[in-house]
Design a protein that fits this description.
The structure is a homodimer.
Chain A (H helix, E strand, L loop, with lengths): L10 E4 L5 E2 L2 E2 L2 H10 L4 E3 L2 H7 L1 H11 L2 E2 L2 E5 L6 H21 L4 E4 L16 H22 L3 E3 L16 H11 L7 E6 H4 L5 H12 E6 L23 H10 L6 E3 L12 H15 L1
Parallel strand pairs in A: 1-4, 1-11, 4-5, 6-7, 7-8, 8-9, 9-10, 10-11
Antiparallel strand pairs in A: 2-3
Helix pairs in contact in A: 1-3, 4-5, 6-8, 8-9
Chain lengths: ~290, ~290
C-alpha cells in the first residue's frame, strides 16, 4: 500500500468539492489555478462546470498547469420514456465522451440514472427492473462509442438511497455483473468507479473489490460518512470526520494493483461549500495525508 | 396472491405510524382503541409506547379488543464496547422477549445495531466488520433465550443509509447468511422481517425472498419511498405516494407461502404525524386495499 503521509502526489480534487465557496459558485478556471498553486496534480471536473468555463479554455488551463484528470464527471442517466429521449441520452453521452477525450480524461464516470422523472419529483414509472434493463442497454450502446474513442467507461454504483432518482446500479456486485455481461474479456474499456461514500457499508465490499481486479478498477473516490447525516445528497464529510475506514478500503483496492489517484469528492452545502475554497483544498491535502 | 381490495383483514398497524398526532404523542391505549374501532385486527407496538402505557394494561387492552400482534418492535442493538454493555444488551433483549411473550407476539423484530455511539453522534469505533461479528454473536446468544420461550426472532435488514448508526445488517442476503449460520435447520426460531422501505432497491430482492422461503419469512412491512426524500429517518411515505412496487413484492413473498399480515410502518414527522390519528388509520385502510 502506498504511503500517502509524506506528500499529496496521488491526490485528485473532484471539482464539485469546491464548486461553491462561501455559498457562491467558484469558477472552474479559478479552481484549477488554486489546485495547481498547491501542487495538486490531478482533478476531476464536472460537465456543468466545464460548460460554464468553456471546453477549450478548460483544456488550455489544464494543459498550462500540467494537470492530469482522474476522471470526467459524468455520463449516464440512461433511462428513458420514449425513443426520442433514448436518442437524446445517447447523443448527450457521445458529447460527454468527446469532452472527456478533449480533456484527456482516463475514463468517463457513469451515474447511470434511475426512474425517469423521479429526480424532478414525479417518476414516470416504478419498474426498477425495467430501469435497470434500460441502463444495461444504454451502457452497451455507449460502449461502442467509447471503444471507438478509446475512452474507458467507469460505472459508479451509487448508494441505495439514490436508487429511485439518480442511479439504479447500487452495489459493486451489480456493476460488475454489467461489466461481465458487456465486456467479458476484461478489455479495459469498461470498469467501475469505487466511491467510498456509496459502497463503504456493503458487506460484500472486499469480495467485490477482489472480483473487480486491476482491469476493472478505474477510479477511487473518497470522502466520509457523517453521523448524523442531515441531507441525503449534500452532507458528505471530509475524510476523517466520519465513520468510513478509508485506509483499510484503499488497501483492498491497492492490493488488486490500483495505483491511480485518490479523488476527493465532497458535496457539502452547509459546511465545506460555505468556506473559502483555498481552505477546503488545504484541508483536503492535510486529510489526504493523515486519513486516506 | 391474496386479494386485499375487498377488506382489511390482513392489515396490521405498526403503532409508530400513529405515535404522534398533530405533533403530539398519541397514547398507545388510545391507538389500540382507534384500531379496534375500525376493524383493524392486528398491531405491532413499539417497546417505548408499551412502557409508557404499561405492559399489563397494554396486554389487557389487546385482549379486550381481540387484537393480534404481527410483531413486537423491537429487540437488538447488539453492539457493545465492553463486557458490561454486552451484558446489559443481553439482559434488555431478554426483557423484550418476555414482553413479546406477554403480548402474544408472533416474533420479536430485531434492529441489530451498528457502530456503538454513532446514533448519539460519536462512534466508539469504525470497524463495521467487527460490529457485524458482535451482532452475530448477540443474535446467537439471544437465540438460546428465544428458543426457551418459543419466541421467534426476526432480523430486519435496515436500509444501507442506517449502516453506521442503527443496523449493520443491510441486505436480505446478509440477514439470511446469519440465519443459515445460526439456524441451519430452518427451525422457525430465526427468520427475517421484510420491510419494503429497507429492501425495495435491492437487485437481489426476488432471489433472496425465494431463498428465505416460508420458514424464514416472519414479517412483512410496507410504506413507500418518496421522491424526494427529505429526511433519512422520518420521511417515509404512505403506500401509493412513492415509487415502491408494493404489490409486485407482496406477490413474491406470498409465492413463498407467506400468509400473514401486511404491517404499515411509517415514520413521518412533517406529514402523517402532523395529522389526526384517525385520518391516518383511515388512509392506511384505504391504501392497504388500493395499493398493497
Amino acid at each position: 500500500m502506498r504511503d500517502f503521509s509524506q506528500d499529496h502526489r496521488w491526490l485528485s480534487i473532484n471539482t464539485a468539492t469546491v464548486r461553491r465557496q462561501r455559498g457562491v459558485d467558484w469558477p472552474l478556471l479559478d479552481i484549477l489555478d488554486a489546485c495547481a498553486a498547491r501542487g495538486i496534480r490531478a482533478v476531476s471536473p464536472w460537465r456543468d462546470q466545464v460548460a460554464a468555463a468553456g471546453l477549450a479554455a478548460t483544456a488550455q488551463t489544464i494543459a498550462a498547469h500540467g494537470l492530469e484528470l482522474s476522471g470526467y464527471c459524468r455520463g449516464g442517466m440512461f433511462t428513458y420514456t420514449d425513443a426520442a429521449s433514448r436518442q437524446a441520452v445517447r447523443d448527450d453521452n457521445r458529447r460527454a465522451l468527446d469532452e472527456a477525450c478533449t480533456l484527456g480524461a482516463p475514463c468517463l464516470v457513469l451515474v447511470v440514472g434511475a426512474l425517469p422523472g423521479a429526480l424532478a419529483g414525479r417518476a414516470a414509472y416504478k419498474d426498477i427492473a425495467g430501469a435497470r434493463a434500460q441502463v444495461a442497454e444504454g451502457i452497451a450502446a455507449l460502449l461502442d462509442d467509447a471503444r471507438e474513442r478509446r475512452m474507458p467507461l467507469a460505472i459508479e454504483p451509487l448508494h441505495p438511497m439514490y436508487a429511485a432518482d439518480r442511479a439504479c446500479i447500487n452495489t459493486l456486485e451489480q456493476a460488475l455483473d454489467v461489466c461481465d455481461a458487456l465486456d467479458a474479456a476484461r478489455s479495459g474499456a469498461l470498469g467501475i468507479a469505487v466511491d467510498l461514500y456509496h459502497v463503504w457499508w456493503d458487506p460484500k465490499l472486499a469480495q467485490q473489490i477482489e472480483r473487480a481486479g486491476r482491469a476493472r478498477l478505474l477510479a477511487f473516490h473518497v470522502c466520509d460518512w457523517l453521523t448524523p447525516t442531515t441531507d441525503l445528497l449534500e452532507d458528505r464529510g471530509m475524510m476523517g470526520d466520519g465513520v468510513i475506514e478509508i485506509a483499510k478500503i484503499r488497501a483492498l483496492v491497492e492490493a488488486q494493483g490500483y495505483a491511480g489517484y485518490s479523488e476527493v469528492e465532497i458535496f457539502s452545502a452547509a459546511n465545506w461549500w460555505q468556506r473559502d475554497g483555498g481552505e477546503v483544498l488545504d484541508t483536503c491535502i492535510a486529510r489526504h495525508r493523515s486519513c486516506v
